[in-house]
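Structure request: ABC transporter ATP-binding protein, Listeria marthii.
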Amino acid sequence: MEVRDVNFSYNGTDAILKNVSFTIQKNKINTIVGPNGSGKSTLLEILARLLSPSSGDILLEGKSIFEWKAKEFAQNVAIVHQNNLLPSELTVKELLYFGRLPYKNWRMTRTKADDFAVERALEQTELTEKAEQFVDSLSGGERQRVFIATALVQDTPILLLDEPTTFLDMYFQLEILELVKRLNQEENLTIVMILHDLNQALAYSDQLIVMKNGEVVAKGEPGKLLTTELIAETYGVVAEVLDDAKTGKYIVPQRRKEF
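Returned structure:
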């Protein structure tokens, strides 16, 4: 997937995205970071074809994503939103079958392929024992796994995640990030996700895309990219970047930068 000179604004007002260009690394975890209001979620919605850029384009297999038929695109790209509508009186398994809509014909009959995809997604997200429980009875971390599983049954090579750890405590944040890492390693999924925690981005990403004020200000390998200078310029925070035996680097925020 290649993002080429993407610009976006609502009704011609102030630009939300400005000449955004980068290549999403195939079969890798690509993480978008940046301050609030930098255009991260807007960019992800454009990648998912939920918004159209004012100018520029996004290519998938050399073809503009806006030229793909809707069903074909949904068989290649799935998204898990930050705020998901919580279904009432639906079991986990019932909800997952909705993820198979891109493969349905007008008769909407359930197939063996649907059953296999649902059972596999339940296993991948460790939800098999929760399959017959109502979604609204689950914990926050379990619900997030359900929404990821619903995207997985689309059986797409690309998965977009908008702040998948939001509203979760530390334990469930790590549970979700470990699931994302496992899906990438075992299923070769291409992941594009938004994170706020830079230490989590360091530990779980192959490529970072750093945004500020609607622009990409840096991109590359996390351990080499995040320096004290870049953090100060992007976030307005003085931070120390330390060496870590497991992640390579670790960031310790110290104070707000004095302007």
